[in-house]
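Quick one, tokens below:
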């Protein structure tokens, strides 16, 4: 059941009305609640009852949290183009790693995540105070607690030490900071003690909800980053916690061996505007549903595309010309292509289909068709799109030479991402359900944990990685001809499946999936470095980090002002 159906059911029932749940303060209040002793008894009522807790997830994959994770990594930069995206320099600060304690997006992410925790705590308080308990109370509690564990993993990932609030009745003035290692232990306990109570189904009733398999994927990611979360990295120097590589592999195996998931033959089908139409899901394990009619918040098309891309994607409004990638990040991709000339047009098909997620070069007033692994060029000058303000060609250049530039050509600097393919007839609020966990990520997590645990990759993990690479190249052969001459080595072996190559594969496979910052910090901590991955110097304008305190964000000044019990992270 897609979450749009769940939310519509919540309205139709009119049995539980929740309004005024603040997402900016820990002392959130509910202003109108209509309890009903006969509610929570059927699967439909239960789905409607937990919908507000899941609705809080819509803020995570494309909002403040997304921007903090991606724009502080090498994966995404948001330069200032004239006055566009100036925004008190918040986007530049993310890229350069010099954000202040009162950074607006940091405070916004705090509100989004703790708003989700508040929504879960409230829902738990409602369902556990009913005079007539639901027949599946234990599984309802388990599902909500694992969802809360996801929010808390996001919190400790971003801020390290955070408040631990597990009851809706907790006095907000009494809340204090808990150590990151304690939050890690809490999240681990919440997942492991509830996972066997979760549904094993993978169908319409669990779509967009925590079931046993999404919980195992969450557990795998938790174990993969145990050194970061269980230590004091970024807080008091680079001190790693105990590694949990074999535990990560076991959690990955639980997902893989369930038999519920397989790689989608077309990479882009995981992210298309109609990706919710495939139920049970093929590759996606846990998603946040969006819908252009009922659930807004997926604004990828507006955030990345140029204003005049409204024309070749048939949008109803001009995009905002913001988020992009640099030439250095694009260098991770194999851009070998096959070209076919037909009349006045040329079709370019990327050999690695994933490379098509980046718009590069001249844009044309031709409908850009799905999937983006194939692109149509035109020789007709009349069809070449122009930047309307400067009357110059709209041609995306991967080189972002500066972080701020008012010139006309700079408005086309940086590559634009169409992985979540733009939905014609919309101007934001597109219907692409956004991915939190999918099988390809699980395969790559297992491979990395395997190499770290054993010093070299096993045949099992190598097979999983090669499935990803073969899907990318649309082949089952270990090598294929290179259109530019020679051959392309598709399959890796034990010598080429190195940690750095796995990180580069994660860059290609998981771009803009809200995980790059976490990946780079994990590599810093596991390698005992500070400025090789996350803290490295980058073009444009970013200097190497001098220490590891940038690996966590500051507790927002706005939150400390509201609650004097909160203490600031070291270095801020």
């Amino acid at each position: 059941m897609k979450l749009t159906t769940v939310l519509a059911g919540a309205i139709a029932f009119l049995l539980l009305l929740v309004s005024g749940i603040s997402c900016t303060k820990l002392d959130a209040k509910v202003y109108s609640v209509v309890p009903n002793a006969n509610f929570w008894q059927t699967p439909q009522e239960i789905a409607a009852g937990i919908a507000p807790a899941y609705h809080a997830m819509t803020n995570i994959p494309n909002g403040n949290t997304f921007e903090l994770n991606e724009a502080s990594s090498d994966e995404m930069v948001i330069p200032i183009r004239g006055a566009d995206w100036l925004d008190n320099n918040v986007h530049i600060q993310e890229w350069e790693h010099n954000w202040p304690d009162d950074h607006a997006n940091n405070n916004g992410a705090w509100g989004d995540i703790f708003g989700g925790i508040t929504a879960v705590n409230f829902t738990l308080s409602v369902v556990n105070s009913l005079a007539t308990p639901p027949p599946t109370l234990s599984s309802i509690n388990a599902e909500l607690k694992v969802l809360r564990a996801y929010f808390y993993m996001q919190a400790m990932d971003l801020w390290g030490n955070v408040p631990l609030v597990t009851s809706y009745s907790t006095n907000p003035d009494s809340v204090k900071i808990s150590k990151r290692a304690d939050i890690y232990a809490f999240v681990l306990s919440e997942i492991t003690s509830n996972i066997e109570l979760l549904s094993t189904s993978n169908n319409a009733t669990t779509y967009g909800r925590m079931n046993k398999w999404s919980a195992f994927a969450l557990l795998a990611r938790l174990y993969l980053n145990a050194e970061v979360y269980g230590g004091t990295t970024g807080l008091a120097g680079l001190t790693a916690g105990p590694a949990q590589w074999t535990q990560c592999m076991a959690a990955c195996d639980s997902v893989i061996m369930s038999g519920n998931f397989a790689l989608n033959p077309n990479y882009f089908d995981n992210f298309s505007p109609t990706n919710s139409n495939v139920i049970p899901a093929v590759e996606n394990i846990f998603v946040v549903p969006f819908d252009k009619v009922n659930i807004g918040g997926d604004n990828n098309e507006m955030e990345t595309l140029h204003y005049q891309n409204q024309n070749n994607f048939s949008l109803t409004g001009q995009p905002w010309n913001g988020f992009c990638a640099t030439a250095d990040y694009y260098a991770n991709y194999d851009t070998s292509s096959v070209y076919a000339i037909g009349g006045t047009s040329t079709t370019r098909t990327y050999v690695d289909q994933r490379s098509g997620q980046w718009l590069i070069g001249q844009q044309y007033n031709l409908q850009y068709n799905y999937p983006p692994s194939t692109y149509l060029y035109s020789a007709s000058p009349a069809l070449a799109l122009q930047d309307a303000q400067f009357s110059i060609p709209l041609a995306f250049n991967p080189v972002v030479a500066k972080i701020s530039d008012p010139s006309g050509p700079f408005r086309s600097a940086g590559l634009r991402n169409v992985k979540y393919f733009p939905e014609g007839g919309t101007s934001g609020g597109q219907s692409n359900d956004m991915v939190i966990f999918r099988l390809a990520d699980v395969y790559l997590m297992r491979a990395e944990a395997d190499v770290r645990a054993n010093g070299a990759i096993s045949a099992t993990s190598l097979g999983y990685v090669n499935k990803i690479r073969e899907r990318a190249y649309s082949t089952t052969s270990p090598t294929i001809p290179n259109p530019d001459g020679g051959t392309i080595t598709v399959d890796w072996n034990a010598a080429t499946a190195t940690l750095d190559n796995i990180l580069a594969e994660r860059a290609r496979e998981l771009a803009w999936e809200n995980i790059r910052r976490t990946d780079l910090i994990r590599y810093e901590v596991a390698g005992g470095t500070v400025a090789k991955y996350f803290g490295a110097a980058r073009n444009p304008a970013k200097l190497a980090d001098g220490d590891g305190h940038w690996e966590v964000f500051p507790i927002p000044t706005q939150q400390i002002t509201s609650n004097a019990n909160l203490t600031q992270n070291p270095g801020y």
